[in-house]
Design the sequence.
């Protein structure tokens, strides 16, 4: 267990063995089976850095982020923020930690109250945490609006009066207004046009440098995370199957699933062709995941042991981890 006296090289956020199972109940209320949305996920996020979680839709990325913040309660595991297990905190202790851990949602419009002016919506977190006087709260909101590239006049407008990119800036402002240390970005650019995506990513990087923020960046587009993440974890059916520094993951992918994802990334040079790896079949249901390696039903390199034994996470190279039977015991 981590101690409360954090060392400089300790992670600001460490997740260990996180599991989140959702019960499927019969009409009589009995639990018939479990949806294993997140199944034994572990990773570390360091101060001032960005850790990316990528994978196909339904692999458990967003559930991981929401469970860390306890928007849904974990089934098992630990999540240490500066040495304190978030899952064990209650009452005022939990509220204090939540000020430091904020989230930017995928759909910025649904995360805003359509009946509230933006200024009031941004002031609300400050009221909840009892921060500042009325004037100080308004000044803080105005300052945050400026930081995310909006103007003072936007303070008095309603959510429907903004474009998608502007709404995502507002969602980011709402997370920033209480001065957090860690922000979980749940696919913050997936609903935006490509040109707007680059603006938001550049804004995130600028704010990270200015405010010393740490990001958990969740996305299904692996080419997007390349530009913002220091490390990437590749998820498949509730598991992280590979984790490595960004440059190494792109230059030397190890897991067959990672290789398939990277083969689908377009190359911006028409004369260069990349061999596309086509995965056969559909993603298995988390209601009844395959035995052994969860990827073996679609893996073009599967061997007999893959069907029987769950692969152990191995460090194949410095800080490059993979869960695959193809890489030594």
Sequence:
């Amino acid at each position: 267990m981590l101690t409360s006296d954090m060392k400089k090289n300790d992670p600001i956020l460490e997740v260990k063995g996180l599991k989140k199972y959702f019960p499927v109940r019969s009409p009589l209320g009995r639990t018939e089976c479990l949806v294993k949305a997140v199944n034994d996920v572990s990773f570390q996020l360091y101060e001032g850095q960005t850790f990316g979680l990528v994978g196909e839709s339904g692999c458990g990325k967003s559930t991981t982020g929401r469970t860390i913040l306890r928007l849904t309660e974990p089934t098992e595991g630990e999540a240490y923020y500066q040495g304190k297990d978030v899952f064990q905190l209650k009452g005022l202790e939990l509220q204090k930690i939540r000020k430091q851990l904020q989230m930017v949602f995928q759909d910025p419009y649904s995360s805003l109250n359509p009946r509230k002016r933006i200024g009031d919506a941004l002031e609300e977190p400050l009221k909840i945490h009892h921060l500042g006087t009325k004037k100080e709260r308004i000044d803080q909101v105005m300052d945050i609006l400026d930081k995310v590239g909006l103007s003072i006049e936007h303070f008095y407008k309603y959510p429907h009066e903004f474009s998608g990119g502007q709404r995502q800036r507002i969602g980011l402002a709402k997370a920033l207004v209480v001065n957090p240390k860690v922000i979980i970005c749940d696919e913050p650019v997936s609903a935006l046009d490509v040109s707007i995506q680059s603006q938001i990513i550049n804004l995130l990087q600028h704010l990270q440098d200015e405010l010393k923020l740490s990001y958990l960046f969740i996305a299904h587009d692996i080419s997007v995370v390349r530009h913002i993440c220091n490390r990437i974890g590749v998820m498949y059916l509730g598991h992280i199957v590979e984790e490595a520094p960004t440059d190494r993951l792109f230059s030397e992918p190890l897991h067959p699933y990672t290789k398939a994802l990277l083969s689908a990334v377009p190359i911006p040079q028409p004369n260069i062709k990349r061999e596309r790896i086509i995965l056969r079949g559909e993603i298995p249901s988390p209601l009844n995941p395959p035995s052994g390696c969860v990827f073996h039903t679609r893996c073009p390199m599967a061997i007999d042991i893959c069907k029987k034994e769950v692969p152990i996470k191995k460090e194949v190279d410095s800080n490059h981890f993979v869960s695959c039977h193809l890489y030594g015991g």
Summary: The chain has one domain: 13-323. The two ends are 27 Å apart (CA to CA).
